[in-house]
Amino acid sequence: MAAVVEPVRLDDAFMQDPHGMAEVFRQEGPARPVVMPRGLRGWVITGYHEARALLADPRLSKNSERISELFQTQVDPGDNAESRTFASALTAHMLNSDPPEHTRLRKLVNKAFTPKSVDRLRPRMEQITDALLDEMAAHDEVDLLESFAFPLPITVICELLGVPEAQRAQFRDWSNTLVSADPSAPIEKAAGELVGYLRDLIERKRAEPGQDLLSDLVHISEDGDRLAEHELVPMAFLLLVAGHETTVNLIGNGVLALLRNPGQLAALRADPSLLPGAVEEFLRLDGPVNLATLRFTAEPVRVGDVEIGEGEFVLISLLAANRDGERFDHPSSLDVTRQAGGHLAFGHGIHYCVGAPLARIEAEIAIGRLLARFDGLALAAEPSRLRWRASTLMHGLETLPVRLG
Ligand code: HEM
After folding, report:
1. CA of 238 to the centre of ligand 1 (A)
2. With CB atoms 3.0 to 4.6 Å apart as the test, which of 22, 32, 348, 360 could cross-link to 55 if both were Cys?
3. Which CATH number fits domain 8-403: 1.20.120.550, 3.40.50.300, 1.10.630.10, 3.40.190.10?
């Protein structure tokens, strides 16, 4: 029988040093009771094998209605009924659903993100990347996130979906607010404004369809009952947020890892054919997603010698799983020649990231062209002074100051 462990609060210390904290959790067993920043209680899973098994375990449910009910019994959000409606309008998407809804929704977008489909976007991605690098070249020092890692994925996903350029900056603010763990972040206001914006955008796509994914999705909903009206807003929201909050961090965390490991940087510069493997290693070593999205136990589940009761929240630490010494040798070291396949940075099972092929190409183009353009690229801040954003879901820096050389 496992000893009773007091829940630990996932506060700023956890977000600033998730790998250090994960090591401590790991020593305490494969499932660790925690309290999330907004007061929700749950379990964090740290072992690779347990994480992989649970990501694909149908006893862990993502049903959004049940999650939101459970959430409200545990946390008093202190908001009004209208803002709760907005929040649920955004969360009722495939990442928060179980089969058969999940299967149906996922089928509708799968085709748009196959390696073949996204490879067609390659020339446009290279163009956007080069334009950003041209602008950066006018400076000695930049925040790589602001100048490069943010604008690239947001431009790509907005073009793919057909979001007009004028609203993109505003969209980024809403999206940042929604993934924030800061209890004072104006989440309800951002959710309400974003729902209004997406509704208008969908209306415009209905009136004047374009050559974009959102127009296709609107069209599908009119063709039959495959994508209902109330499913369009959450689908658009999921694709927009998932499509840029994460890839930013892959570029940012990957470049940081290289700049902190000059030997690995030199190896990659000497042999650019290592790039696709290096991207897998960035995903493994310091991936963009910290804890996978909320799941709850539809029945009791045993993890090692810990029994998790029915109706409890489970958070799977992708960062911890990917540094489990039982699965990867020297797990905390960057090795761009490593066979990093099998990492869990994109999740596993039915919710495995639909955008993985797009994210991989974006990161390869971005990091490859950045290194080719600036051969003196270097950190312009002490690594210990860099801060991580306040989020238990995302793992990304607030800023990444670099000298371009
Ligand atoms: C799901 C990571 C980029 C769209 C997921 C999940 C992870 C993840 C871990 C599963 C979450 C869970 O099971 O709780 C990442 C990473 C990315 C990335 C690390 C970048 C490096 C993208 C992009 C898109 C995207 C570019 C494009 C639209 C989605 C969608 C889902 C998802 C729609 C839900 C899939 C489902 O429920 O079946 N992603 N993602 N992601 N991702 Fe990504």
Report:
1. 9
2. 348
3. 1.10.630.10
